[in-house]
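Bumping my old thread because nobody answered last time. Still need a sequence for this structure:
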């Protein structure tokens, strides 16, 4: 991948805006205003979730994931496989002991699979999910300056703090699953959104309003959208953060991966007022990252980094030390 930073990435929708003009902008702002005003209405429950967003129980389309797992013998394979088959949503587990790889098919969230494998005393690295060009990832960081001023980054580490990870996999021509994990933010209810732009030069402030998705809406995807037509397509749903600052959610959403590559993915408290179609602020509990393509199953056979010469597991250790989930 070329060494682009977030500020170099221009979203697909930002290019589309130039062609559609004022009518598009008016429609987008009206859509935001109608939806977010309805969410802040006294009649609406505080933790109201858009009807187009789902949860783990509603995910029925199986998909494949590929994990690197240190396994040394058949006993290792049996222990890991046995733990995984106890996880709801696991249909099939296939192990390649020689290459230390696990291929898993089902509807379980990748983060839940990693946690289950780690419960056996082993680590796990997601090597690919879904089909080629059908997977994406976003590393979520804080851009809150008072928080950043307290950080003393390790050599080579980001000057921001990783607070979350969003893994995305497209399972058909109209549906994408979003596996969101967060750590280190205050307890409460948060809204996950895709933003109109991918410019993070000023963090969440330069990522723009919620992505409306009007310009790239296909007939197949439109047929999957139900509920309030005023909901911008970039509103994914909500996630609860517990008293320890941890939270996760697995959502099903009507979009295709190609539509959102280069956009920003953001998580902010539901109390933030976005009814005017405005951008978010960089407060201590708002995290954001750019959505980038990731490998599909069998698209990534790298075992040594060509840049650093480090092995897969050495790279993993370095990233965990920097705060990566």
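Sorry it took so long. Here it is:
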């Amino acid at each position: 991948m070329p060494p682009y930073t977030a500020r170099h990435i221009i979203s697909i929708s930002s290019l589309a805006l130039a062609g559609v003009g004022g009518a598009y902008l008016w429609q987008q702002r009206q859509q935001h205003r109608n939806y977010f005003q309805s969410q802040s209405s006294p009649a609406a429950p505080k933790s109201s979730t858009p009807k187009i967003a789902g949860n783990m129980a509603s995910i029925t389309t199986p998909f494949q994931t590929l994990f690197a797992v240190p396994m040394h013998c058949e006993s290792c394979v049996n222990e890991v496989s046995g733990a995984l088959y106890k996880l709801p949503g696991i249909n099939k587990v296939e192990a390649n002991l020689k290459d230390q790889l696990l291929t898993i098919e089902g509807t379980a969230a990748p983060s839940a699979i990693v946690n289950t494998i780690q419960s056996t005393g082993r680590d796990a690295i997601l090597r690919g999910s879904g089909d080629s060009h059908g997977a994406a990832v976003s590393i979520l960081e804080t851009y809150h300056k008072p928080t950043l001023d307290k950080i003393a980054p390790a050599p080579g580490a980001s000057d921001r703090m990783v607070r979350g990870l969003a893994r995305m996999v497209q399972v058909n021509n109209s549906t994408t699953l979003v596996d969101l994990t967060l750590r280190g933010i205050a307890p409460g209810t948060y809204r996950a959104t895709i933003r109109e732009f991918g410019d993070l030069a000023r963090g969440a402030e330069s990522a723009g309003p919620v992505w409306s998705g009007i310009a790239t809406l296909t007939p197949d995807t439109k047929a999957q959208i139900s509920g309030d037509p005023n909901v911008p397509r970039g509103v994914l749903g909500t996630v609860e953060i517990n008293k320890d600052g941890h939270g996760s959610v697995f959502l099903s959403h009507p979009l295709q991966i190609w539509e959102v590559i280069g956009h920003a993915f953001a998580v902010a408290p539901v109390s933030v007022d976005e009814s005017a179609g405005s951008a978010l602020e960089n407060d201590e509990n708002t995290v954001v990252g750019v959505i980038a393509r990731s490998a599909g199953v069998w698209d990534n056979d790298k075992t040594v980094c060509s840049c650093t010469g480090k092995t897969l597991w050495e790279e993993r250790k370095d990233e965990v030390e920097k705060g990566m989930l």
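The longest helix spans residues 22-39. Let me know if any region looks off to you.
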